[in-house]
Amino acid sequence: MKPSSSRVSSPRYLVAGEKGLVVEFGSAIDPETNGRVQRLYRSLGRDQIPGVGEIVPTFRSLLVSYDPLVIGFDELVSRIQAVRTRPLEETPAKNVVIIPTVYGGEFGPDIEFVARQNHISVEEVIRLHTSVDYLVYMIGFTPGFPYLGGLPSAIATPRLQVPRTRVAAGSVGIAGEQTGVYAVESPGGWQLIGRTPLRLYDPTREKNPVLLEPGDSVRFERIDEGRFREMEDGLTADY
Question: What ranges make up the beta strands (E) of 1-95?
Fold first, then answer.
């Protein structure tokens, strides 16, 4: 297969209001494109260009907030280009996070629909969902919500036609060809197949309130309801 232009072309530098710049690496959503986003994200975090504030990585682009009284758009583009074209440093080892999950029942009310939609059994849905490692492409929607790539195509399922007004924190869902975990209670339209007792977002955590970061790998591990209750009652933070 011929490589897509997003993988070989230089990034585009786009204006995002008076205080924002978007570095866009292409139109494809894939690990290679996202890897370019993550490398630049880490490099800019180390360089700390004067005037640059928050840096937000997404699937295929990077949003850079800056103070135009300190650095102008053109100068910022030049500084980013200089950072981007430096020899690549060694990529740090990925952090692999195990997400213990109880599937089905009250915890995953849509798992039977996912099975019917794909003409397989519920057990096969669970087996497939726990069979691969997922890439954290980005964090968004709500604090700590990970958008995970790598879902087996055999369990891809469209979103709900009518979103729920309340989805419990820890709910594991499927939307199209992605899976994700609701880090906080919120409305949502993903197909719910299970729930984890892990707190993906905890503002009381000293080091980092967000458990996952872009570039991490996630592996789901099946647990039973008894183990879920044990962890929910006090072992979550120590898992």
Answer: 12-15, 20-24, 52-57, 61-66
